[in-house]
Design goal:
Elements lengths: L1 H23 L4 H32 L7 H61 L41
Helix pairs in contact: 2-3
């Protein structure tokens, strides 16, 4: 029984870590939208509350020091909300940078694959001895050989004189 509970808690912890990581990576855009929307609603409510406190101070014409605690509390809450919004903006900027870096890494990896394939094609072309004239990646030298026509010339046959044989002395 105890080990089953431990396994459940372990599974819940792993699930929570996975969801938290995915949330921070920006995979749950709709959750970020809900969080931003709820922050905006709380911010509007605090602004409205501040206006009500100010109106109550004017209507009741009381000492502003006695009524000042709701005002201070609302200002403190607005400060905390502003800090949260700044944190969320910084997190979104970091996520954007991370996504940019991931995209750049993907492009670099694809370019490396293309380069490997081109190198493989070049090696096959070199091994087979086929000149790949249409590939711009190959360095090639173009040599133009002019056509030279030789006239038909009759070469007479010359017989070399046979040397006289000499007896050895």
């Amino acid at each position: 029984m105890t080990s089953e509970k431990a396994w459940y808690w372990l599974a819940a912890g792993v699930l929570a870590l996975g969801l938290n990581g995915a949330y921070l990576d920006g995979q749950f855009g709709w959750v970020h939208g809900i969080a931003d929307h709820s922050t905006e609603i709380v911010e509007r409510a605090s602004m409205r509350g501040l206006s009500f406190v100010t109106a109550a101070e004017v209507v009741l014409a009381r000492n502003s020091e006695a009524m000042g605690w709701p005002h201070v509390t609302l200002q403190r809450m607005q400060g905390k909300l502003a800090c949260k919004r700044i944190e969320m903006a910084e997190r979104q900027i970091d996520m954007g940078r991370m996504q940019r870096d991931l995209a750049m890494a993907r492009v670099d990896r694809q370019m490396a694959r293309v380069q490997m394939k081109m190198d493989k094609v070049r090696m096959i072309a070199i091994e087979n001895g086929h000149p790949a004239q249409k590939c711009s990646g190959f360095s090639r030298m173009v040599v133009t050989v002019p056509r030279v026509e030789l006239p038909d010339v009759q070469i007479p046959e010359i017989q070399a004189p046979v040397a006289a044989s000499h007896d050895p002395i």
